[in-house]
Specification:
Strand content: 15-25%
Number of helices: 7
Protein name: ABC transporter ATP-binding protein
Strand order of the largest sheet: 6-7-8-3-9-10
CATH superfamily of one domain: P-loop containing nucleotide triphosphate hydrolases
GO molecular function: ATP binding
CATH architecture of one domain: 3-Layer(aba) Sandwich
Organism: Paenibacillus hodogayensis
Shape: globular
Helix content: 25-40%
Oligomer: single chain
Pfam family, one: ABC_tran
Order of helices and strands: EEEHEEHEHHHEHEHEE
CATH class of one domain: Alpha Beta
Number of strands: 10
Bound molecules: adenosine-5'-triphosphate
Structural class: alpha/beta
Largest sheet: 6 strands, mixed
Keywords: ATP-binding, Nucleotide-binding, Transport
Distance between the termini: 16 Å
């Protein structure tokens, strides 16, 4: 599903002609199978966000190739990337990134509006998702009227509204207390199991890493083997057979 092959990345900072080169990632090879939950862990500055930004096409690798769902995305133009992102990724962030002047319903609906989806379909999809994340009663609330855990669940619903096969998450539980963190992790596991969604998550948090099928450790821009719970080296644990999007979350009958 996601294949990173021989990817290296360096940033150039400073004035043109007098740039300083900062090598960040070195020869990264990584595969994420459909239906896996994979956690990327590593110390601050080890290159986790850079790797996620490369996979989501916000930056291009200095060297190497990335394939997602069989497509070589490192060759896409900016415009093609924008379309590809909409069709393949949902995003979750530590800071939720909800729009404060929009209700929970409108925040979740926004990607559908941007995609030009019809009002009746939008309403049905948003209602189903808000119910799925346990927030039907809060549809008309503004983010400022919701707890941190509820805001993060709105952002999960928004990440899923275009039915992406992959969710990329950067410290998704970073600003949650332990109860809300537990609830969110349970939700992620259920969404993975019931709908076959692939999750690739950056985390500093062992609890988050524990819901993952496996963990990838980045150290100084290189992938290091990290023992997994069953004693394998963290690469290649077979993914659970995903049920697919049509299973239970969205029941419109016209999905992938
Ligand atoms: N746009 C940029 N320009 C120059 N250097 C950058 C840029 N983005 C990241 N870096 C550098 O790349 C290195 C890796 O940063 P990155 O954000 O990928 O690490 P990280 O593992 O995600 O860290 P953290 O856990 O603190 O978020 C750091 O030394 C950082 O300063």
């Amino acid at each position: 599903m996601i294949e990173v092959q021989g990817v290296s990345h360096q940033f150039a900072i400073g004035k043109k002609g007098r740039e300083r080169i900062i090598p960040v990632l070195h020869q990264i090879d990584m595969r994420v199978e459909q239906g896996e939950i994979v956690a990327i862990v590593g110390r601050s500055g080890s290159g986790k966000s850079t790797l996620l930004n490369l996979i989501s096409g916000y930056i291009r690798p200095t060297l190497g190739e990335i394939r997602i769902a069989g497509r070589t995305v490192t060759k896409l133009s900016e415009g093609q990337w924008a379309d590809f992102r909409l069709g393949h990724f949902g995003f979750m962030f530590q800071s939720f990134q909800l729009i404060p002047s929009m209700t929970a319903f409108e925040n979740v609906e926004l990607p559908l509006v941007l995609k030009g989806i019809d009002l009746a379909v939008r309403k049905k999809r948003v209602d189903v998702l808000l119910e799925r994340v346990g927030l039907s009663d809060c549809a008309s609330h503004y983010p400022g009227e919701l707890s941190g855990g509820q805001q993060q669940r709105v952002s999960v619903a928004r990440a899923l509204v275009l039915q992406p096969p992959i969710v990329l998450a950067d410290e998704p539980t970073g600003s949650l207390d332990s109860d809300n963190e537990r609830q969110l992790l349970t939700l992620i596991r259920e969404l993975n199991r019931e709908n076959g969604i692939t999750f690739l998550m950056i985390t500093h948090d062992e609890q988050v890493a524990e819901v993952a099928h496996r963990t990838v450790l980045l150290q100084d821009g290189r992938i290091r083997p990290r023992p997994s719970r069953d004693g394998m080296n963290g690469q290649g644990i077979p993914a659970a057979q995903p049920a697919g999007w049509t299973a239970s979350l969205i029941e419109e009958g016209n999905n992938r």
